[in-house]
Design a protein that fits this description.
Distance between the termini: 132 Å
Shape: elongated
Strand content: 5-15%
Number of helices: 22
Number of strands: 21
Structural class: alpha+beta
Largest sheet: 5 strands, mixed
Amino acid sequence: MGTKPGRGRPAEGKGERPRAGRAIIAVRAALGLIVALGALFLVTAALAAATPLPEPRVVQASVLYDIEGRVITKLYRQNREIARPEEIPQHLRQAVVAAEDARFFLHHGFDPVAIGRAAWRNLRTGKVVEGGSSISQQLARTLYDLPLDRTLARKAREAFLTLQLEARYDKDRILTMYLNQIYFGRGAYGAKVAAREYFGKPLASLTLAEAATLAAFIRGPELYWRDPERARGRRDWVLARMADLGMISREEARRAQSEPLRLQPPRSSRSEARYFVDWVREQLAREVPAVARHLDAGGFRIYTTLDLDLQRAAVRAAGRLDELVAPLGKQRGASQPQVALVAMDPATGGIRAMVGGRSYEESSFNRAVRGRRPPGSTFKPFLYAAVLAAGEPLTEPVACRKVSYPTGNPEQPYYEPVDYGPRPYHDAFLDIRHAVAISDNVVAVEWMNRIKPRRVAALARRMGVESPLTQQHLGLALGESPVTVLEMTRAYAALANLGHRVDPLAVLRVETGDGTVLYERRPTRERVLEPEVAWLVTDVLKSVFDPALGGTARSLGIGRPVAGKTGTTDDAHDLWFVGYTPDLVAAVWVGADLPETVRSPGGARASGGSTAGRVWQSFMVEALAGTPARDWPRPAGLIRAATCTLAGPLVSPRFEWREEWFLAGRAPEPDCLAVLERLGPGAWPGAAVPLLPGPAQGPTPSPLSPPDGQPVLVPPAAGSQRPRRATPSPSSPC
């Protein structure tokens, strides 16, 4: 009697049948899914082949306009020349395939191996670190200017266009189209333009190493060319990858890797204000990323705050650098020393001119925006703004002499400030106006000790300095914390505006080609300083230009009311000048990228006044030509007062009566004894106080009261902007 199949098996084998059945079902399901996907792919491919390819989207140049509506430059993708297939060397084709799509000739538009590998890496890292796009997919995306978002609709359109390209063209044609379409950085679209831009030669003349370099740039077109070391590393990886794929021998790869990376400097462009244009790109990337992504193809109209006339004046002024300083050779390929300039409309914050370096072709690094350097004495106006805001009078005398301040640092227990120049101390009494005029360091540090760095740093931040500032060290008074030229321009604008801070403004409006407004920004103003305090600081900074006070900018006048400050750091590494009128603020920095002593053509150490000040003066004279001169209106909360102060050498000081401006209600009592009381004992080493001589005729007045006929309080006179100076004593350091 026969036995049916499956009967008579051992009992312990009963559990194997369900497991085997589930495995068979899973395999069948997987095969069914693969068959279904394959069928879908074939149907989609057939449909794509039968559907005509749409015309590629025509890219349009975006145009940047200045404040007067003049064209600054055009931003475009059309800097492209189509290369014929025979012009493209084989090693460039191979390098691009090795770098971007090693299985390009084996798939039909989509590489499942690359997609799976990328998915696995992204899954392991928890973020997108690798893409699996093929050359055909990249061509579809760039040829039809598809957005970069990851929506299903965009991916489906890219996939369909990829299949259409694969159905219509062979692989060599697709690769040729890709090499003519892709962006290589520095405005170069297509390999033909890129070969000329980077190597100055025809496409067909590229060496293996140069071809690998271009292939390397595709992954980060605006990244690698700016970083030669990173670019070389990427190039060498491409060459190694070509050897791994059998495209070249190991020896060929080694020889090419041993070649130095030599890139031509960026070619001269028709555009003006290239540092400013780069900054506009950065502003748009932050404010309107959707516009920034398509800036070179979207046909946008971008209206900026730049004034081409002022920009050209700034370039001419910066061009004077060679006659003002001795050359320092080159650092990282850029001539030294360098220069940066920013000019701003204080009423709106609009940037009217920007120079980020001597030559954009030599160095695209924008020193005006990104270069942080110690500002030296140009930081002192923030200190004295805090001093005056605290109610201290301009006439308060401070002894300029050797003094030590404890630091709390065992390695350097004391800080002893000294003055610039051959005399470390003036050994004299200086009030605020005189101390600022001659840029006295010792007096500034003493005021910082009284007001405290934290308070001054907070005010500087409110006025527009965003870089980190020390809040523990008295050296902040002398500008030891690095800042940018743009920050200093913004902060001084708060003084020019009599206390209103304005934000730097580059882009006013962005429109489409048909005039639709996509983005608009209006000026912003915020009160950060009382107008009376800002006016007093400005009036003091006018003294910097006063020859009678020995002002450090006495030779830098521009024929109109102006305020400003020089700055020279230790060893003349950084030279500054920041100055302003009611209509324009400009800051200038001169120095080497890697700090080095800057010298005049004769060999002496340069100063802020002799270098940055001369550049500033040249710019301002030209920039303000034709603009009516005007002074700052005096706020109502100020009074003129005749008061007693102490002046002259510490060994033989003297009382002086003179008029000065004060905050209403803050004028010191007209009492010389009060000055002595505020100074306290030991203010000077054992000197008698000579009396102020009386008038030539009539009774001799008391030295402790104002001379006969001189009012104690003088109401503001119409049209009067400056106090009357007392005649300095012959021994005065000012």
